[in-house]
Write a structure and sequence with these properties.
Layout (H helix, E strand, L loop, with lengths): L7 E6 L8 E4 L4 H14 L10 E6 L2 E6 H8 L5 H12 L3
Antiparallel strand pairs: 1-2, 1-3, 3-4
Helix pairs in contact: 1-2
Amino acid sequence: MSESAVITKVSLWTGSNDPLPEVTIDVPEPHKAAAIALRHFRRQGYRVFASGAYVNVETGTKRQQFGVRDIIAWLKQPEQADFVVQQAEGAANGV
């Protein structure tokens, strides 16, 4: 990772009282970081589709919150097709 890379911290809230899982990703775009983090959390066994689940995305001093369903809807937009394919290929290759 280069010195100029922007680190995005993403945490997941699923409605439980458990500590929020958190992951850091070197993707500065909040929606993409959230989508990648959701895949990570799901692989770790977290209930990412729990009712009301959301992700907190923090890039530098900017903080945003997205509902999991909003991120899924964003991924379904036609202009996200290349990103979805890229992520699917990466997942298939174990990335």
